[in-house]
Amino acid sequence: MNRAPPRTLALLLVSVLALSAVAPATAGLAADAASAGDASVGDASTSDASAGAADLTYVESDITEDTTWNAADGPYRIAADVTVEAGATLTVEPGTTVQPAAGIRITVEGNLTAEGTESDPITVATAPQAPDAVRWASIRYEGGPRSHLSLAHATLENATNALTVGSSAGRIDVTGVTVRNASRDGIRVVNGTGTPKLTVEDSTFTDIGERGIAVTPGVGAVGESRVTSNSSSPGNRTEHQLALALGADTTMDAFRVAYRGHGGVGEVDRSSIRKFGLDLDGNGSVDWNLLPLVKTVVDRSNSYEIRLRRTVTVPADATVRVAYEGVENPRTYGTYPVEVDLRTNGVAQTATTVLSFDLRSSGEQSALDSPPSRASDFSVTGSTFDSTGEQGVFVAADVAREFRITGNSFSDTRGSGIALRGRRVDSVTVRGNRLAEIGREADGVRIAGRRLSDLTVRRNRIAGADAGVGLYARNENADRIRVVSNVVTDSTTGVRVRHRAEHYSQHLSMTLADNELADNAGRGLSVVAPSTRLEGVTVRGNEISGNGNAGLSVEANVLTGTAVRDNVIEDNDAAGARLLAGRFVRSAVRNNTVARNRGDGLSVRTELVVHDVSVTDNRVLDNAGVGLNVNNSLTHAGAVELSRNLVAANAYGIRVAGAFGARILNNTVVYNTYGLGAPVRTDGYRPGTGIVVEEGEAGAIFRTGEVTEPLRELVDDRQVGRMLDRRSPDTYTVVLRPNEAAHVWEGGDAALTVRALSADIPTGVVLRKSDESRQRVVVRGNDVYGHDRGMTVNVSTLVDANTTARLFVNATRTVVAERNYWGAESGPTHASIHPEGTGDRVVTRRGWVDFVPSAASPHGPRYHRPVANVTASPNPAAVGERVVLSGRESSDGDGRVETYRFAVAPRQNVTGPTAETPSSPTATASFGETGNYTVSLVVANELGVESADPATATVAVRNRSATPTTAEAAMTDPAATTAAERSANPTTTLSANGEGGLVSQLSVLATLGGLLGLVLYGGALALGAVGAVQTVRRAGVPVGGKTINGLAVAGMAVWVAAGLLGTDGLLAVGVGSGVLWVALVVLLWALTRFIYD
Q1: Is residue 735 in a domain?
Q2: Least buried of 260, 332, 397, 960, by fewest C-beta within 10 Å?
Q3: Residue 805 lies in a domain
Q4: What is the Cα–Cα distance from 53 to 99, expressed in whole angstroms?
Q5: CA-based angle 582:587:591, to the nearest 5?
Q6: Which of 980, 996, 1012 is the last residue of a domain?
Q7: According to the UniProt record, where is the region Disordered (predicted)?
């Protein structure tokens, strides 16, 4: 009997099952063997360690002459503190192991050279048998001017502070060193008032309890501070007062005070805190009371911690003042240390500050007023900082300068990766570092001080920080700051700059160039300096995209000499670029691309003056608000030029408010009819307006001009009147605000010129008519079309200035708008002046506009809207069937279609695209219920200009047993072949009464390929059935299994080939028949096994 096919299949299945069972077992055996090998190695190591214990060299005395430690005589077990005395050199050779006991300090007053190799490093660590909690103290450098400490290719493990620097003399080099599991700092520079020359290269700091490297000579940037008592009696319970003056802006959400074992504050609680706040002017009183922000007071071992409800910033030169009761004085007279600490999220923000508490019989108490500390000549290069409890690199000194922190990697730091603070920070380079996983409310790079200068932050890659780069200055100038070529992502803010001026003359200058600031939760680039003069600020070549707030935001008192150019600002969740200032003068915004932001494209908002400002050659596209928005609150003659800009697809095109010297020239302002989502509205104007010209809403600025009458008649403010009496004409301007006191402002470049006082309104002035070059808005040579309203003019004849004065504006030529193209050869449409025009409408609410003559053709390229076209396949479709929606036939006559937005209605029981989510040219949908569904498509080109109307198609969804063919549907409902006049290829749809079913689906077997496959496959089924019966009867079979299988495969191949060549349905038949054949063979095998077994 021929039973080879089922037996062969059974053998194959058994082999596969055997292999799948054996493979894991074999892998497990191999793993067990490897584990056994590792255990053997471990046992050998333990044995070696035990055997080597007898070879230890114990060190208990100081080193007074040149000494060498080598691997052969080690390990060196240090059982008592050891000092390398001045003039002596300790040399530790490669491969040597040094084992300090618990609490042991190695002090270097002379020289230490411990230089291993990559293959034979030096190890300084507790003994392997010591408990994990055991810590040796530190290698402490106390060298002189000619001392040198060199560590290379060494591992320092299980220390409190691996390396402590207590001298400002000599030189320290650390190269290729690994510092691991230090309970406090990896390298700590303390005491003294300065630092030696310190170089750290290619080293690793991991599992550090506090800071990787802490450079904090003296007490850091802390000024005059003190702790005082109401009582001078030892052991008396009394009140203490603490004052801590800070030299740089410092954030905190907790304030900690520790008495170090002398005196007692263990019973201080919330009710004990009598005073807690900030003294901002140094007069001894609290100006900002922090008591309402106190959440709780936690007492610990002779210390207490005031925890706040939120984080606050203590300004530079402010003093934190605390008065707390229930304190026990020390039991003897003397000077006692009190440690003060400001923390944010548990991370110390200042250097460890120890104040002296003097308890004297005389009652005299001194203040901490240490000499200025200086940290300089320091570099950290090519090193790795991983898992530090506070900052990676922390520097705090009165003067911090000449630092280089380059090419390092920082990750998993609870504090800032790099933090520099001081009264003065200058000549610092932070370059080529990678920072990630920075702690909550901690910056990647943070630099804070009173005065900042010559700072370069370049080519750093930062992710997961509060601010990627944070710069904070107060009360002095900040000059020559360069933030260049950095990448900041997934942070709260990309680059954050904060400056607070103490005097009007203080300024900030900086360059922000070639940075990539993307996908941050807040602003991409934020500069907040509300009282500062920003001079020579350059924002150039940055890519600012995908941020959760404004892309670029600058706030200042004065913006002068500012250049914003060559930036790409896209896809931000608020304005693209926002400039806020009291005065914005002598500046340029040029050649930027500002697109797809959820607010204005470029917004310039000034409170006093915008003058001598140019906005040119920008591409402002598809923003949810105004494309170019220049808005001054006071009406004045500010000279602003907006020229050669492409402004398209925004909610509004261009808006100029309050600047009567504006010139809007040679721009392309087209299709500003923002169609996706809700536009950001401008009060009083409907979206879809090309150009808006209006007055300032808050008053006016003017100067005397030809007026002979005393101007103080206009101003109901005696103080201003007296000031006017003392001045000659044309040397001043007057600022009038509604319902506010007027004031005099020196200089008048942007002031309106007054021609005369009004006799009709005793408190009015008429603006000078002959000075039209200054006192009108010019709109010329622009292409403005594709809007509901091409331009709206809204300038009142009477500009309210305050309750006692009004200005007459020349109403005959408020806006000169000649030689513009309005979308039609016939010119614009105006209700009264030019009703026959067919171009964009020009609307004059108040004021007047002269738009004749107009241009008959565009000055630049003629832009068009794209045309949408949508198809659906298959159509009709069965319930649950995958339907492909295609917009590939959509087109754009002068560009390319870039985004496709499909929508399906009704949405119930539909899985598919929505209009809010752009997709590729195709999308898929499936339908859970029968019915007719409308598919719509809106497309947009590369400018963001959308198709005028959506293209639509109707998809008929039927039960699977009643889904007709496309041809039948077309015959049943010929009218369903049209979608919309705008659709180039209408989509065929089906009437609800279409017929079909299983018969129509099986009709594919009547084709030539279907019949041939049926003969072959049917023959195989018949012969197989006969063979199966004979096998069950234990009789011979007439035809062998190979022949039967060959016939089946041939039939399936014919069906698949015919299906691929275009016969609908045969491909599915071929695949389904293959699955059926395999199932029958498996069933036959199982049956025969059952019979024979």
Answers
A1: yes
A2: 332
A3: no
A4: 12
A5: 125
A6: 996
A7: 907-928, 959-991
